């Protein structure tokens, strides 16, 4: 039996499209908050297999989503490379910053998979425990997005340090990217070896790049990672999410080799049908704020997305992650609306 999500990503148009939600595990769920209390730090949570396995399964159990996404974070890569990552409650991530090619010597690929073995243990356990029709998604951050956290030392508003390094010292910045391309490819392949059936590459900050930088820092590294994953694991579908890319999304869909493009909230549906779905499957793109709002306004928007995008290969999702203050009953209403939808 080929699962719904895999069928859609391989180009099939389905009468009932599969759905899952970015950040479907998280603070909006009371059972997640209870688990989080027991975990200590956020990365300790990600690295404790029984807790991270439970967090991965919680939204599947509650909403019967068609996919589970591994409970982990994009910042396990810098952490495993040796740049210490910490998360302070209510205040984003902090990382020892890397701001020059010389500082790269403090990072190492040696033993990457060993350091991430608790994550792969979660993948194996979830893979064994999932209902048989539910697909397990592994993921990683794209090099650009992960680099922004490493260079800025945490979250950023203008990405000035990262961009100026990329403009001023192309070869030094390329060395950081080479390291991230290697680490990310290996991390995705390891997740697949342990049971991930689909992988998603999150380029959450792709939207701040100029067209020329987009080609160099989003498309080119993604194409290399896709090629590496394909060579090691032919047939495993890859979703790319270049958030905020706008019209650059067309070249992303054509040139990276991904099987599907995740559409962010801003993408017009008719444009996506013409410009993206003609190249590959699409995923998205309900505004997370509409999910928080709920009610008939949300249901109308869900049906509008389905009426447009489900005529081709399509996976229902949000345009970005679930917001922490989202009422759980709105997510249940979304799940019922998508599951009971019919094009007739
Ligand atoms: O205290 C908590 O509970 C921490 C909140 C949290 C959670 C639940 C963070 C901190 N990460 C996660 C899990 C997570 N992160 C998942 C798990 C699976 C799921 O979707 O259910 C995934 C896929 C991610 C990916 C991730 N982490 C991204 C890419 C997607 C996106 O949202 O754009 C990014 C940018 C991060 C970095 C990150 N992790 C956490 C924070 C607070 C941040 C910084 C976000 C920012 O800079 O705005």
- In total, the number of strands is 9
> What's the tally of helices?
16
Largest sheet: 7 strands, parallel
CA-atom Rg in angstroms: 19 Å
**Each distinct ligand:** coproporphyrinogen I
Q: Strand sequence of the main sheet, in spatial order?
A: 1-4-5-6-7-8-9
**Percentage of residues in strands:** 5-15%
End-to-end CA span: 25 Å
Order of helices and strands: HHHHEHEEHHEHHHEHEHEHEHHEH
Unreliable spans: none
Question: What is the structural class?
Answer: alpha/beta
Global outline = globular
Helix content: 40-55%
Q: For the residues shown, what is the average pLDDT?
A: 97
Q: What report would you give on this structure?
A:
The structure is a single chain. The protein has 344 residues and is of the alpha/beta class. Helix content is 50%, strand content 13%. A seven-stranded parallel β-sheet has the order 1-4-5-6-7-8-9. A two-stranded antiparallel sheet has the order 2-3. Helix 2 runs antiparallel to helix 4 and helix 11 runs parallel beside helix 12. The longest helix has 24 residues. The two termini are 25 Å apart. It binds coproporphyrinogen I. The site of coproporphyrinogen I (1CP) has 23 residues, from strand 3 and strand 4.
């Amino acid at each position: 039996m080929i699962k719904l999500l895999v069928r859609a990503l391989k180009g099939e148009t389905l009468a009932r499209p599969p759905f899952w939600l970015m950040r479907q595990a998280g603070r909006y769920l009371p059972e997640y908050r209870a688990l989080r209390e027991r975990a200590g730090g956020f990365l300790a949570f990600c690295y404790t297999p029984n807790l991270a396995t439970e967090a991965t399964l919680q939204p599947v159990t509650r909403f019967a989503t068609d996919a589970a996404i591994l409970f982990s974070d994009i910042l396990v890569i810098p952490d495993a490379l040796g740049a210490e990552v910490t998360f302070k409650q209510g205040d984003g991530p902090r990382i020892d910053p890397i701001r020059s090619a010389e500082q790269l010597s403090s990072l190492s690929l040696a033993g990457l998979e060993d350091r991430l073995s608790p994550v792969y243990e979660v993948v194996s356990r979830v893979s064994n425990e999932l209902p048989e029709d539910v697909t397990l998604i592994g993921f990683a951050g794209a090099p650009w997005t992960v680099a922004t956290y490493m260079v800025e030392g945490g979250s950023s508003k203008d990405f000035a340090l990262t961009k100026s390094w990329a403009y001023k010292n192309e070869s030094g910045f390329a060395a950081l990217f080479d390291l991230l391309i290697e680490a990310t490819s290996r991390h995705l392949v390891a997740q697949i070896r342990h049971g991930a059936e689909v992988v998603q590459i999150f380029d959450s900050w792709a939207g701040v790049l100029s067209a020329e930088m987009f080609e160099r820092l989003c498309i080119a590294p993604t194409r290399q990672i896709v090629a590496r994953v394909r060579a090691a694991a032919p047939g495993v579908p890859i979703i790319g999410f270049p958030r905020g890319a706008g019209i650059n999304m067309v070249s992303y869909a054509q040139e990276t080799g991904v099987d599907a493009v995740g559409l962010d909230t801003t993408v017009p549906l008719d444009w996506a049908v013409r410009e993206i779905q003609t190249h590959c499957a699409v995923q998205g793109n309900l505004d997370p704020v509409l999910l928080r709002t709920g009610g008939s306004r949300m249901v109308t928007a869900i049906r509008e997305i389905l009426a447009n995008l489900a005529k081709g290969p399509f996976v229902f999702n949000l345009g970005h992650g679930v917001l922490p203050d989202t009422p759980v009953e709105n997510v249940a209403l979304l799940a019922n609306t998508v599951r009971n939808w019919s094009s007739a």
